[in-house]
Task: inverse folding
């Protein structure tokens, strides 16, 4: 069974940095895309950044120039977050779109990791 697990959240001061990690476990034939989303209390989940198998990235306007998504292999993705702002406070979720060993496609969500930015 394929799962994704996030790590790296925490509490930092405004202007600081954090790196979030997303690791997929289980047998994967290929990764279609991986991405990060976030959801603040009372708000809808929103896209932060995505990276597709070819390496093309996409960012929300609110994080462009501050966040960088990268993928080191088919199972691990990182989100480097710099110049953090209090409005970046959210639960951050990893999403993975993968092809399993039988050719079946899965869309997976992690359990989320809390990021809190103090002013």
Result:
């Amino acid at each position: 069974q394929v799962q994704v697990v996030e790590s790296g959240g925490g509490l930092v001061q405004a202007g600081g940095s954090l790196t979030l990690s997303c690791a997929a476990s289980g047998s994967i034939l290929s990764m279609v895309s991986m991405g990060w989303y976030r959801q603040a209390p009372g708000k809808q989940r929103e896209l932060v950044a995505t990276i597709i198998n070819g390496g093309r990235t996409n960012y929300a306007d609110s994080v462009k120039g501050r966040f960088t998504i990268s993928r080191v292999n088919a199972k691990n993705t990182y989100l480097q977050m710099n110049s953090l702002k209090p409005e970046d406070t959210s639960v951050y979720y990893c999403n993975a779109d993968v092809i399993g060993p039988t050719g079946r496609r899965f869309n997976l969500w992690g359990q989320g990791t809390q990021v809190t930015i103090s002013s």
Observations:
- The chain has a mean pLDDT of 94.
- DSSP finds no helices and eleven strands in the chain.
- The CA atoms of residues 6 and 22 lie 4 Å apart.
